[in-house]
């Protein structure tokens, strides 16, 4: 199967601090791939390097067959990005920010449909600043879908959402996966990872400890749940 993302020997430092170390993985087209690890493991930096937002010292990255550093403009027509922190200008309203994002793309999705899917349509004329934390997070995912992307990057997508809101987002993402969209996500919620991810890569201090399907990773551990298997992998790393 064709790969949507290929990362080979990726290495990134900040001064003398090595943040990503010789990282290798590939994400198949239509797959939901989870990059997991504790805070400071290098997950967000890896996403930044994959998107061409940060330079790196060694290795190579291809997204949809493109070099993200050299072909960033062309690439951004075909990917959607929801990053950890999204800031919005002054008193901008929900409908206005949707319209601004849609204006950046040649063939944007109908954001009214997306607002309805995410149950945000009643907030069309409301200032973004007055949304709850959970509503803002859903809006950031929605904005990442406006380009009608082939690959969607989601960095801690449901942090701050209550249980009902998280499940609404999961439902939308599962439907997108069924349509063939490739999803690349980071998350600290193992129930979310179990529901959404086909394969996962667990990293610690910038290097990969294991890359496997969720069922196989659980099977290799002494446990029956991903959360416990994940903690087991991390403890094995500390013990080495």
UniProtKB/TrEMBL annotation:
Keywords: ATP-binding, Nucleotide-binding, Transport. Signal peptide: none annotated. It comes from the Bacteria. The keyword Transport applies. Residues 5-230 form the ABC transporter domain. Pfam families: ABC_tran. InterPro entries: AAA+_ATPase, ABC_transporter-like_ATP-bd, ABC_transporter-like_CS, ABC_transporter_ATP-binding, P-loop_NTPase. The keyword ATP-binding applies. One of its GO terms (molecular function) is ATP binding. Belongs to the ABC transporter superfamily. This is ATP-binding cassette domain-containing protein.
């Amino acid at each position: 199967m064709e790969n949507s993302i290929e990362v080979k020997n990726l290495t990134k430092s900040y001064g003398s601090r090595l943040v990503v170390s010789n990282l290798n993985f590939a994400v198949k087209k239509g797959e939901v791939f989870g990059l997991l690890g504790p805070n400071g493991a290098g997950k967000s930096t890896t996403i930044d390097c994959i998107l061409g937002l940060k330079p790196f010292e060694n290795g190579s990255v291809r997204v949809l067959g493109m070099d993200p550093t050299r072909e960033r403009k062309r690439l951004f027509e075909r990917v959607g990005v929801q990053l950890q922190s999204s800031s919005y200008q002054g008193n901008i309203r929900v409908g206005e920010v949707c319209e601004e994002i849609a204006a950046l793309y040649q063939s944007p999705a109908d954001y009214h449909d997306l607002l309805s899917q995410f149950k945000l349509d009643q907030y069309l004329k409301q200032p973004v600043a007055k949304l709850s934390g959970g509503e803002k997070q859903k809006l950031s995912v929605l904005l990442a879908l406006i380009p009608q992307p082939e690959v969607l990057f989601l960095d801690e997508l449901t942090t701050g959402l209550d249980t009902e809101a998280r499940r609404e987002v999961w439902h939308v993402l599962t439907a997108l996966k069924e349509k063939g969209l490739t999803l690349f996500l980071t998350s600290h919620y193992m129930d979310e990872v179990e529901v959404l991810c086909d394969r996962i890569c667990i990293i610690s201090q910038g290097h990969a400890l294991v890359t496997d399907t969720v069922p196989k990773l659980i099977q290799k551990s002494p446990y029956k749940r991903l959360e416990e298997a994940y903690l087991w992998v991390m403890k094995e790393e500390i013990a080495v």
